[in-house]
Design a protein that fits this description.
Layout (H helix, E strand, L loop, with lengths): L1 H23 L4 H26 L1
């Protein structure tokens, strides 16, 4: 259970930082790709850990 909660926190942090830098570097197309992928990865980690915690 502890690992799942830590996964939730890490997923939230990755997605928040990805979104923050995505907005900050909105004019650079290469940065937009990288930070979009990072944000999506954080959301995926968060979702998987949340489902595992509920089940």
């Amino acid at each position: 259970m502890t690992v799942k909660v830590i996964g939730l926190i890490i997923g939230i942090l990755i997605s928040c930082f990805g979104i923050y830098y995505l907005v900050k570097e909105k004019n650079d197309s290469e940065s937009k790709k990288i930070y979009s992928i990072a944000s999506a990865l954080g959301i995926i980690i968060f979702t998987i850990c949340l489902v595992l915690l509920i089940l």
